[in-house]
Amino acid sequence: MPQMAPINWLLLFIIFSITLIIFNMMNYFIYMPSSPTSENMNFKKSYLNWKW
To answer: Where would you find the membrane-spanning parts of this chain (predicted)?
Structure first.
């Protein structure tokens, strides 16, 4: 079985690294989070009256 030259290992590592980086960037920038609407924002305001 022939040995693989070190430059080929380096080229293979660079190709896989660039592929991984591009894939992660695409996943990061394509994701569009849903914007909050007014019906989801019904918070209860509870006021604390401290009796000192």
So the answer is: 7-31
| Residue 26 Cα distances to 2, 12, 23, angstroms | 37, 21, 5
Half-sphere exposure of 45 (CA within 13 A, CB side): 2
d(CA 8, CA 15): 10
* CA–CA separation, 49 and 52 (whole Å): 9
Q: In angstroms, rounded to a whole number, what is the distance separating the alpha carbons of residues 21 and 27?
A: 10
Does the global pTM surpass 0.70?
no
In the three-class reduction of DSSP (H, G, I as helix; E, B as strand; rest coil), residue 51 is classed as: coil
- The predicted pLDDT at position 5 comes to 78
